[in-house]
Design a protein that fits this description.
This protein is an alpha/beta fold. The protein has helices at 13-21, 50-53, 92-98, 126-158, 163-170, 178-188, 200-214, 229-239, 250-261, 283-300, 305-316, 349-356, 358-362; strands at residues 2-6, 38-47, 63-64, 68-77, 104-110, 217-222, 245-247, 265-266, 275-276, 319-324, 341-344, 364-369, 375-376, 386-392. Among the domains are: 136-212, Helicase, Ruva Protein, domain 3, CATH 1.10.8; 313-392, Beta-grasp domain (Ubiquitin-like (UB roll), Roll), CATH 3.10.20.30.
């Protein structure tokens, strides 16, 4: 799974990325500080299975605080996008090509409106920023289809090919599936047997809807603790009521995580408070931390960064967390519940087996639910937080 951070220059993408991953990336107050995409691991929260089974888990990746398991997900921070990016302006061609493999876009919007459309300090409009990026992404998808559509439509219609299958094959690099195409055709009531008869508006609406389905997007309203942000947030919600919008402060989250790493405070990402380690912070640091507590955590319940990741994976992409668990709940080295995998909703026991290893899937006999100790078959649908032991031949 790959979550792509998008937005105009200087909106706070790299700060959000660093706050979520603690990766060492350049954060600078000028446009296009990011040129090459940054990759790193953020985490999503899952109530740990160890809380129910009376054990303490030892994660191989991520970590567990005894109650919550933090499961890694890959994040990508790409260069800022400006109007005309779909036509190659700015770093548009590179920006968009980097995003092909993303499963979901997290649009970082400067909700304070303190940077202009090109990321320079000044006055900006978060609503217009959101409209611009949405438009550029739709043009990007539309442009990719336009290049091959005329020939492709003619071939499909002449040879009576399956349109959904042909489109999915042609655009597999964009993570387009047959099911996605079929869903769009039904929604828009387009005739898949006569694509040559589609109007330009038909194709435009088709590619726009397909982009929304295959590259969904949520908005992280960043810098929400700044002056003027509250009013802009309400305007943005009114304009984009059909898109999930989460207020956040990347600066606050980064400050708290860095302070925790330095031993100044005790803090777990996503929490609504932290504990200052007395004697380790000076007055200036205490004042800054108190400001974060009062203006961010008390007001919004968290910095919002963790909430963005959790909702992106579980609420929007509908993934579930599954724990591979043998009868002793430990691997050969004694690590208890060392792994936790994220799978698409609707995954079966056999899907899970194949996600572990091809050989395990090929040799699947049955699975055991570690809670109930009951055997289940290959078609058994898995639930969020299941613990599953795979039995093989």
């Amino acid at each position: 799974m790959l979550l792509g951070l998008v937005g105009k220059p200087s909106c706070g993408k790299s700060t959000f990325f660093k706050a979520a991953t603690l990766a060492d990336v350049l954060i600078a107050p000028y446009p296009f500080a990011t040129i090459e995409p940054n990759h790193g691991m953020g985490y999503v929260r899952v109530k740990s299975l160890c809380t129910e089974l009376g054990v303490k888990c030892n994660p191989r990746t991520g970590f567990c605080d005894g109650k919550i398991r933090f499961v890694p997900v890959e994040l990508m921070d790409v260069a800022g996008l400006v109007e005309g990016a779909s036509e190659g302006k700015g770093l548009g061609n590179k920006f968009l090509d980097d995003l092909r493999q993303a499963d979901l876009f997290i649009h970082i919007v400067d909700i304070s409106g303190t940077t202009d459309s090109r990321g320079n300090e000044g006055s900006g409009d978060p609503v217009e920023d959101a409209k611009m990026l949405e438009n550029e992404l739709n043009k990007w998808y539309g442009g990719i289809f336009q290049k091959v559509w005329e020939k492709m439509a003619r071939t499909i219609q002449t040879n009576k090919q399956n349109l959904a299958e042909a489109v999915a094959k042609q655009f597999s690099g964009l993570r387009v599936t047959e099911e996605d195409v079929k869903a769009v055709l039904i929604k828009l009531k387009l005739d898949p047997t006569k694509p040559k008869d589609w109007s330009e508006d038909n194709l435009k609406e088709f590619t726009k809807t397909l982009r929304h389905m295959t590259k969904p997007m949520i908005i992280a309203a960043n810098k929400v603790d700044k002056s003027g942000a509250s009013e802009n947030l309400e305007r943005l919600k009114k304009e984009f009521g059909d898109i999930l919008i989460i207020p956040c402060s990347s600066d606050a989250e980064l400050s708290l995580r860095q302070a925790a790493n330095a031993g100044l405070i005790e803090y777990i990402q996503g929490e609504s408070s932290f504990k200052i380690n007395e004697g380790k912070v000076n007055e200036a640091q205490k004042k800054a931390l108190d400001s974060i507590q009062k203006n961010v955590l008390d007001k919004f319940g968290s910095t919002g960064v963790q909430e963005v990741l959790d909702k992106a994976v579980f609420d929007f992409l509908k993934y579930i967390a599954v724990f591979p668990a043998g009868s002793r709940l430990a691997d050969s080295k004694g690590n208890v519940l060392p792994d936790c995998f994220l799978l698409p909703s609707g995954s079966t026991a056999l899907d899970f087996a194949y996600s572990l290893h091809t050989d395990i899937g090929d040799r699947f006999v049955r699975a055991i639910d570690v809670r109930t100790k009951k055997a289940v078959g290959k078609d058994h649908p898995l639930n969020h937080r299941d613990g599953i032991e795979i039995m093989t031949s």
